[in-house]
């Protein structure tokens, strides 16, 4: 007589791994479930429910051959309970695992967006349909942009919701003035983030044009009064006849030369894009002409005409040193380059130049390109000051000197400086139309 035994003992209970017990899950309504393999198990059964009784489970998956599972359908927000058991090759189920719980949080909104452009206090002197750009926010599916000329946003000029991109170009023309803007994000549950920080920008629209130098560089031009000025610093490397302008990098060669030359601030080519080139006065005065046809380096009188149009009196314009009231602030500006990553602005905008309601209004957009010493060849003042040559040589009682007039701006002055410096100094150049 033989005998046999039918084994009805199932495998041991699995040990759960994740979601960990008590875990709060944000922005993932199909969380992966993991548990440890059990010896002798052929398949597993996973149950997920919103109650500890599992009377109406949201997920009841049996026949799972792996020790993990990702739900096919999203789980609802709130608390969920889960457990797993194993089944052997004879069809015996083992005991259920511990029951763990987790919470899917569908009530917390995404983070507030970070604004990118227009950057804070940017002056837009040439466009009245600006493009707004902000950083993408994780879990956001749309954004709301609000633009108003009042910081309380009580009567928005622009109020766009449901934006799925992180850029928006205004479809309406904004009038001259100061504007404020902010953005918030919305997630797939409809939760809103807090509003971003508020940033401001100003629009002062001007008549504009363009001019191209012999190297093919294209410059924006702006009409101020009845003069047409370049709205960017010169960066040409050849005279009008095609001859190359000498480029000097070494300090000792810079201050010792007596022929036309240019350099780039700190000898860093990237500064050309920001600030243009710096030229000595020999290049400014060269008969081969640094300006394209129809344009010229401004004379001292051209500068005075510009300054008086901006509000300076004739007596002040004729004076030396710092003159006027807020004409420097009007001439200054700030700028974002086309790469959307480089902001050019003046140091410490809480000082006189930047902290002035007239800042940037002229459209001249003077940037703090610094200068180069004609005594030592050293560079200085980038970010802090701007210096522009005139084509006018200085005379004293004995005749012509080795100095020429310039104009300068500095972050701690809202005025404009008129003075003279040695021909060897390196300064920016703006051109004015004939």
Give a verbal description of the structure.
With 434 residues, the protein is mainly β. The chain folds into three domains: 90 residues, Immunoglobulin-like (Sandwich); 89 residues, Sandwich (Immunoglobulin-like), CATH 2.60.40; 226 residues, no CATH class. It contains six helices and 32 strands. It has a five-stranded mixed β-sheet with strand order 2-8-7-4-5, with no helix packed on it. A five-stranded mixed β-sheet has the order 10-16-15-12-13, with no helix packed on it. Strands 24-31-30-29 form a four-stranded antiparallel β-sheet. The longest helix is centred in the last third of the chain and has 10 residues.
Q: Mind telling me the C-alpha Rg?
A: 35 Å
Helix content: under 10%
SS summary, helix count: 6
Terminal residue distance: 123 Å
Task: Report the sheet-strand fraction.
Answer: 35-45%
How many structural domains? 3
Question: Which secondary structure elements does this structure contain, and how are they paired or packed?
Answer:
Elements: E1 16-18, E2 23-26, E3 33-35, E4 43-49, E5 59-64, E6 68-69, E7 78-87, E8 100-105, E9 115-117, E10 122-124, E11 131-134, E12 140-148, E13 158-163, E14 167-169, E15 177-187, E16 199-203, E17 208-212, E18 218-224, E19 227-230, E20 246-247, H1 251-256, E21 261-263, H2 270-275, E22 278-279, H3 281-284, E23 295-296, H4 300-309, H5 314-317, E24 321-323, H6 327-331, E25 335-336, E26 343-344, E27 369-372, E28 379-382, E29 385-396, E30 399-410, E31 416-422, E32 432-433
Parallel strand pairs: 2-8, 10-16, 20-21
Antiparallel strand pairs: 1-3, 3-6, 4-5, 4-7, 7-8, 9-11, 11-14, 12-13, 12-15, 15-16, 17-18, 18-19, 21-22, 23-32, 24-31, 25-26, 27-28, 29-30, 30-31
């Amino acid at each position: 007589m033989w005998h046999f035994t039918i084994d009805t003992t199932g495998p041991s209970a699995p040990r759960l791994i994740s979601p960990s017990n008590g875990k709060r899950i944000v922005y993932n309504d199909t969380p992966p479930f993991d548990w440890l393999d059990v010896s002798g198990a052929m398949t597993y059964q996973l149950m997920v429910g919103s109650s500890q009784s599992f009377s109406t489970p949201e997920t009841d998956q049996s026949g799972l051959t792996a020790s993990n599972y990702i739900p096919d359908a999203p789980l609802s927000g709130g608390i969920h309970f889960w457990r797993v058991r194993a089944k052997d090759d004879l069809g015996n189920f083992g005991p259920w695992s511990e029951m763990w719980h987790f919470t899917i949080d569908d009530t917390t909104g995404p983070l507030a967006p970070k604004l990118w452009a227009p950057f804070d206090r940017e002056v837009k002197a040439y466009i009245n349909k600006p493009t707004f750009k902000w950083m993408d926010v994780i879990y956001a599916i749309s954004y709301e942009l609000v633009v108003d000329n009042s910081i309380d946003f009580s009567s928005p000029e622009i109020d766009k919701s449901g934006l799925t991109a992180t850029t928006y170009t205004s479809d309406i023309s904004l009038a001259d003035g100061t504007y404020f803007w902010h953005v918030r994000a919305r997630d797939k549950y409809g939760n809103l983030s807090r509003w971003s920080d508020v940033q401001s920008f100003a629009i002062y629209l001007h008549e504009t044009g363009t001019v191209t130098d012999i190297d093919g560089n294209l410059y924006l031009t702006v009409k101020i009064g009845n003069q047409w000025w370049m709205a960017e610093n010169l960066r040409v490397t050849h005279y009008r006849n095609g001859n190359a302008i000498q480029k000097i990098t070494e300090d000792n060669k810079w201050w010792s030369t007596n022929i036309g030359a240019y350099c780039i601030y700190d000898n860093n080519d990237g500064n050309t894009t920001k600030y243009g080139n710096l030229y000595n006065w020999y290049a400014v005065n060269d008969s081969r002409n640094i300006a394209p046809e129809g344009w010229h380096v401004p004379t001292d009188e051209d500068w005075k005409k510009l300054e008086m149009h901006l509000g300076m009196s004739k007596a002040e314009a004729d004076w030396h040193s710092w003159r006027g009231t807020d004409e420097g602030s009007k001439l200054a500006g700030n700028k974002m380059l086309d790469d959307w990553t480089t902001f050019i602005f003046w140091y410490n905008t809480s000082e006189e130049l930047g902290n002035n309601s007239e800042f940037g209004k002229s459209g001249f957009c003077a940037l703090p390109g610094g200068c180069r010493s004609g005594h030592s060849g050293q560079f200085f003042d980038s970010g802090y000051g701007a210096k522009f040559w005139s084509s006018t040589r200085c005379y004293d009682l004995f005749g012509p000197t080795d100095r020429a007039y310039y104009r300068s701006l500095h972050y701690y002055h809202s005025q404009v400086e008129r003075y003279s410096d040695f021909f060897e100094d390196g300064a920016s150049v703006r051109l004015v139309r004939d």
